[in-house]
Amino acid sequence: MNQPLIYCIDDEENIRSLYEDALSVGGFQCVTFQDGASFLAELNKKQPDLIVLDVMLPGMSGLEILENLTHGPYSTIPVIMVSAKGGESDVVKGLNLGASDYIAKPFGVMELLARIKANLRKNGFSNTITYKELTLNKPMHTFYLNGEPLSLSLKEYDLLEYLLKNAEKMVTKEELLSKIWGINCEIETRTIDMFISRVRKKISSSNIRIETLRGVGYMLR
After folding, report:
1. Cβ–Cβ contacts within 10 Å for residue 164, how many?
2. CATH 1.10.10.10 fits 128-220, yes or no
């Protein structure tokens, strides 16, 4: 991920365009959705760093979407609710359901960016992740081992990033297939073994190991 990834859901095309333009200028990666169904479909493929969610949406409302988020595996993602002025009851419901913040329409670009940055900081978002001798600089899309950049293919990068984010935790092959290659990707598990072997060689000069838990998966530690 080169930049913090923000998902924005709004049924108004002009608002979606505003999000795309403002967040791009603000240094964020922005993906917009016009309804809850398209948003949830993408969420199952890739998790964002923050969600901007309008209350009034066709079909599934913003509050219904929020309730699904806060009671599922995505409960740690900060959500900023967007509500028209005068929608105090919706704001209260959203905050009670677990929203991190809210912003009233019409809003200014500077306020939007400030709230996004504040909520990312509050949620512990950082541009770097360090584990032992390994550091990931996310804006640079680069891993460093003992201060030296690692040369990685795109899949090797994605694989090492996922293992790093789950350091000292067991990660199953099925999980890696879903997160790295896509939930519908049909590849053999020995392909994962091949990529694991490549990454192992590239970090072999460190004290970090990718251990194989036979028949289960892998653990970076």
Report:
1. 17
2. yes
